[in-house]
Design brief:
Blueprint (H helix, E strand, L loop, with lengths): L1 E5 L2 E9 L3 E7 L1 H4 L3 E6 L2 E2 L5 H6 L8 E2 L2 E6 L11 E2 L10 E7 L2 E5 L1 H5 L37 E4 L2 E13 L4 E5 L11 E6 L12 E5 L5 E5 L4
Antiparallel strand pairs: 1-2, 2-13, 3-4, 3-8, 4-7, 5-6, 9-12, 9-14, 10-11, 12-13, 15-16
Length: 230
């Protein structure tokens, strides 16, 4: 993460590498039942690419390298792009746009119910010796005589597909194909994420205006003073 300034207000941002992406396939409605564009991102060597995938990506390979990630984007009608065209981040996003980010969150290993689900644990007094971080009862005996599916218990924490909505694009670097989004995004450094444009917006909407209040000075004249929101 980093920071930037919007109208003299410091805003936390996350800088992401968003391209360039290459069009690898066009799915047609008469064959697949819908229109879609498959795009590739990143690079990997031919020795790390299976033979069927090399045949699929042979039109977009470059000096023995192939796209590392493939994602499909549905479109309403026949796209203007063709296989081999390069899509840059400046063609899709601009400062002020609202986007959603989907990625796999950080894995935190096996965790108990206190850390994983914020359980309070057992009593800390009255003679208890080993129940401080215990989950307690997990169900009834005779009825239903089993543990309900979905019961919150200890287990692996994190590594979940997470989507964060309404992040705002603060700046776009078309030369480096980098963008900065307000706030944080799920996943560790180097993780693969999917950015989806929601709607257009203005960058000024990211910063709230400080309300002005009318106060009287010592001389009885009204003065405008800015009061920070609580």
């Amino acid at each position: 993460m980093s920071q930037t300034y919007v109208q003299n207000t410091k805003v936390p941002v996350t800088v992401l590498k968003a391209g360039p992406c290459v069009v690898t396939q066009i799915k047609r409605e008469e064959k697949e039942g819908y229109w879609a564009v498959q795009i590739g991102f990143g690079i990997k060597r031919a020795k790390n690419t299976t033979k069927p995938m090399q045949g699929h990506l042979k039109k977009v390979s470059s000096e023995g390298f192939f796209p590392r990630f493939l994602r499909e984007v549905r479109v309403m009608g026949e796209p203007e792009s063709k296989v081999g065209d390069v899509v840059s981040v400046g063609d899709i996003l601009k400062p002020g746009d609202l986007v959603s980010v989907t990625a796999v969150s950080k894995g935190k290993g096996f965790a108990g119910v206190v850390k994983r689900w914020k359980f309070a644990g057992g009593p800390k007094t009255h003679g208890q010796s080993n129940r401080e971080r215990s989950p307690g009862s997990i169900g009834q005996g005779t009825t239903p005589g089993r543990v309900w599916k979905g019961k919150r218990m200890a287990g692996r924490m994190g590594s979940d597909t997470t989507t964060i909505k309404n992040l705002r694009v603060t700046w776009v670097d078309t030369e480096k194909n980098e963008i900065a989004l307000s706030g944080s995004v799920p996943g560790p450094k180097g993780a693969f994420i999917t950015i989806k444009r929601l709607k257009e917006g203005k960058l000024e909407e990211l910063v709230e205006k400080v309300p002005e209040v009318q106060t009287k000075g010592k001389t009885g004249e009204s003065e405008n003073q800015a009061e920070a929101p609580k």
